[in-house]
Each structure stands twice: as structure tokens, then as C-alpha cells.
Amino acid sequence: MMHPATYIDQLDPAIFPFIQYADYADRYPTHTMQAFPASFYEEMRAASAGLFRVFCKAAEVLQRAPNDFARAMDMPREILPYLHTVNAFH
């Protein structure tokens, strides 16, 4: 089925894939495109950075603690060896 040109044709499907069925006239993006003020994005970046620092600190605590501590935190036994593996990103 041939579709008339719409804004969807301008989207890069690798970034914004869309739903399209062969026998269905309508197509629509799989993501909602909604603009927010720059302050919202800055707030999200700040919150994300803060959470990242918290998780880094938690990982450091688990890496320095004995395995019994990690087990007490309900960490699966199979993951324990990875706590002591060198982080390739540092």
C-alpha cells in the first residue's frame, strides 16, 4: 500500500522506528515526539548524574566489602566474582 508523504518519511528509522503494517493505512512512530523546555532536560541530566554517582559509590562499597556482605544484600553467588574484576572504563 502506497502512503502519502508525511513527517514520518523525514524520520531516520534507526533513531525513530515506526509501526507500519502492509494492509493498514496509518503509520505512527514508536516513540512520542514531545518537546520540553531546556530546563527540564538540564534537570534530568543533573538527576541522572546524581544517580550515576550514587550507583558508583554503591558499587565501590560492594567491591571493597567481603563477599558475605554482598550475599547479605541478596546478591546472587554467581555475580560475586564480577565484583572483583577490574573495571575497563576506569
Return the string of H and E elements.
EEHHH
Rough shape? elongated
Total tally of structural domains? 2
Low-confidence stretches: none
**Strands ordered across the widest β-sheet:** 1-2
Q: How helical, in percent, are the residues?
A: 40-55%
- Average pLDDT works out at 81
Q: Count the strands?
A: 2
Tell me the structural class.
mainly alpha
> What portion of the residues fall into strands of 2 or more residues?
under 5%
Question: What's the total helix number?
Answer: 3
Fold and architecture overview:
The chain has a two-stranded antiparallel sheet with strand order 1-2. The chain has two domains: 1-32, no CATH class; 35-90, no CATH class. With 90 residues, the protein is mainly alpha-helical. It has three helices and two strands, in the order E-E-H-H-H. The chain is elongated and about 65 Å long. Helices cover 41% and strands 4% of the residues. 0% of the residues are buried. The longest helix has 27 residues, at 38-64. A hairpin with an 8-residue loop joins strand 1 and strand 2 (28-29).
